[in-house]
Write a structure and sequence with these properties.
Layout lengths: L1 E3 L5 H9 L4 E3 L14 H12 L12 E4 L7 E4 L2 H5 L9 H16 L21 H8 L2
Parallel strand pairs: 1-2
Antiparallel strand pairs: 3-4
């Protein structure tokens, strides 16, 4: 069994392994690595969240939510105005994805982080710009 979700520290990994996972998957932790294919807009948003200047709650943690607003499928993103404006987006993939493609592309080109999807998990506030090998080493128990 592979455990995933909410993995941001070595303690998280250790707890999941103790709970019975055979392996642990981490995604968000790698968004700012040089090896990641993270877009410039997505990278800027995650970096702002990690710095506590945007997409952060009062306690400094990442402000995320589940949404279907961008694609018609559930996914977790840093919380944006677009998501708040479309809380009841239909479960209509790929139709919603096609309908929002132009909007997302234009928003990314303009640096409008409130209109582009910013896939990230609940531990986005912990992400750092560092090589993937360093992220992996920091998560290894």
């Amino acid at each position: 069994m592979v455990a995933a979700g909410g993995v941001g520290t070595v303690e998280d990994v250790r707890a999941l392994l103790i709970a019975g996972a055979d392996a642990v998957a981490a995604g968000t932790a790698f968004l700012l690595t040089p090896e990641a294919g993270t877009s410039a807009a997505h990278r800027a948003a995650v970096a702002a969240c990690a710095a506590g200047t945007r997409f952060s709650a009062d306690d400094g943690r990442a402000r995320t939510a589940l949404t279907r607003a961008y694609t018609g499928r559930w996914a977790r993103s840093l919380a944006t105005a677009f998501m708040a404006e479309h809380p009841d987006a239909p479960a209509a993939y790929p139709e919603v994805n096609v309908l929002t493609k132009g909007l997302r592309a234009a928003a990314a080109a303009a640096g409008d982080l409130e209109r582009v999807h910013l896939w990230a998990g609940t531990e986005a506030h912990r992400v750092r710009e560092t090589p993937a090998a360093d992220v992996l080493a920091s998560l290894a128990p």
